[in-house]
């Protein structure tokens, strides 16, 4: 029996990671959305809560026990060191959560959707990367339409996201999502290659 793998779906903003993840969900695969689970863990993890309050004070959580997003955003917005501190607290908890989640679904290949694979230090725990790509102008148009934002803001996000896969030692496969190339056949081909 083929070993069940943990595959990262990555790519920059507007590339279409979520489209690939949605197709895989429809096909019955389990997807771990790192953004979604990081938000959940920031509310629920005692480890994250303890470390964030130790670093930024009790006000970083509201009286209801949820993260004070406006305060946190204001702290990390122009402070790379504060952002690195928050990431250093949250990413290890997310990684442990992914391992637990993957172990609860051992009978099939599982997928992790993330824009910051190497930055979060996840490259050592995955078996393969599916890198979703699209031309920059296509990505800009998608995000401007989706988020009702400006071209400048989208370019800031694109430039701030490091999508370098140089540190990844596992196979990296590409999925082209340019609006013209069919995605489903590419996904089916990659799924077949997992069981070879």
Word description of this protein:
By secondary structure, the protein is an alpha/beta fold. It has 2 domains: 1-29 and 108-196, Rossmann fold (3-Layer(aba) Sandwich), CATH 3.40.50.300; 36-95. Helix content is 51%, strand content 12%. The chain contains 8 helices and 5 strands. Strands 2-3-1-4-5 form a 5-stranded parallel beta sheet, with helices on both faces. Helix 2 crosses helix 5 and helix 3 (46-56) packs antiparallel against helix 5. The longest helix has 25 residues, at 80-104. The protein is globular, with a radius of gyration of 18 Å.
List the helices and strands and how they pair.
Elements: E1 6-10, H1 17-26, E2 30-33, H2 34-44, H3 46-56, H4 69-76, H5 80-104, E3 110-113, E4 128-133, H6 136-147, H7 151-160, E5 172-176, H8 183-194
Parallel strand pairs: 1-3, 1-4, 2-3, 4-5
The percentage helix is: 40-55%
The structural class is: alpha/beta
CATH topology of the largest domain: Rossmann fold
Please give the radius of gyration in angstroms: 18 Å
- Reported CATH architecture of the largest domain: 3-Layer(aba) Sandwich
* Distance separating the two termini: 10 Å
Strand runs, count: 5
Give a quick account of the main beta sheet: strands, pairing sense, barrel closure.
5 strands, parallel
The H/E string reads EHEHHHHEEHHEH
CATH class of the largest domain: Alpha Beta
Low-confidence stretches: none
* The number of domains: 2
Q: Count of helices?
A: 8
Give, in spatial order, the strands making up the sheet with the most strands: 2-3-1-4-5
Shape: globular
